[in-house]
């Protein structure tokens, strides 16, 4: 099992070396990482800011949230770099896991404490009045299980990165 993990880590390293072999690829990946890091750093503390997003969120950013932001931004930037490499070398790109992980990573902060979920449920309740009672339980579930949702999001992003690695290596013939 350890040997298998080591081989997979070598595959990831090899694919990233191929994808980041030019200065332009490194600069683009770094720029995407910094933009994604800023986005996640402002988004993750939304539960502490009452849903306010922006520079005000950075005051409430904890070390754990910052580490989550770094991990998610790195996974997203590296998956995109591998996807671009695959496109340039004629491969098909299907970053479904990483995209799903990136979307899932934004949901807890957006749905827990912002008015997005109550407004959405209010819109649904205007057509189906019984749906109005589901807003608070859903927000409570998201707030209670926020860490697990972030864990699932990171797992999906790792899965997307590994899929991109396999596709990039298949294009490198």
Quick structural overview:
The chain has 173 residues and is mostly helical. 76% of the residues lie in helices and 0% in strands.
Keywords:
mainly alpha; single chain
Polypeptide structure, described:
The protein has helices at residues 2-19, 23-43, 63-88, 96-113, 116-127, 135-144, 146-171. With 173 residues, it is an all-alpha fold. Helix 1 packs across helix 3 (63-88) and helix 2 packs antiparallel against helix 3. The model has no long low-confidence stretch (mean pLDDT 75).
Detail the topology: elements first, then pairings:
Elements: H1 2-19, H2 23-43, H3 63-88, H4 96-113, H5 116-127, H6 135-144, H7 146-171
Arithmetic mean pLDDT = 75
Strand residues, percent: under 5%
Radius of gyration: 19 Å
Global shape: globular
Q: How would a crystallographer describe the biggest sheet?
A: none
N to C succession of SSEs = HHHHHHH
End-to-end distance, in Å?
28 Å
Number of strands: 0
């Amino acid at each position: 099992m350890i040997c298998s993990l080591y081989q997979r880590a070598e595959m990831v390293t090899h694919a990233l070396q191929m994808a980041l072999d030019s200065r332009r690829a490194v600069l683009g990946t770094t720029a995407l990482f910094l933009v994604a890091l800023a986005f996640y750093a402002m988004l993750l503390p939304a539960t502490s800011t009452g849903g306010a997003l922006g520079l005000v969120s950075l005051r409430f950013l904890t070390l754990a949230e910052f580490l989550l932001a770094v991990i998610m931004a790195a996974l997203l930037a590296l998956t995109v770099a591998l996807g671009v490499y695959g496109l340039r070398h004629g491969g098909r790109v299907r970053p479904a896991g990483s995209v799903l992980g990136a979307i899932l990573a934004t949901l807890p902060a957006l749905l827990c404490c912002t008015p997005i979920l109550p407004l959405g449920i209010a819109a649904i309740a205007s057509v189906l009045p019984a749906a109005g009672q589901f807003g608070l339980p859903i927000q409570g579930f998201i707030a209670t299980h926020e860490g697990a949702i972030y864990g699932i999001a990171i797992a999906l992003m790792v899965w997307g990165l590994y899929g991109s690695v396999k596709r990039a290596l298949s294009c490198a013939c």
